[in-house]
């Protein structure tokens, strides 16, 4: 049961960090006028694909999430 709770905690932490990083990108890089207008297809802006990729790279590079070892 503790392992399941730890996995849920890990997932929630990862999600919160990712959301914060995406918001930071949206309100810094996203405010550049020309960047907001770049569209890959007819409906998908570049930022919808780029922000999550950059956030995942930053999380993997600079954050350490771990599940504690099982204690007897």
TrEMBL record:
Keywords: Membrane, Transmembrane, Transmembrane helix. It comes from Ulvibacterium marinum. The chain crosses the membrane at residues 7-24, 44-63. This is DUF2798 domain-containing protein.
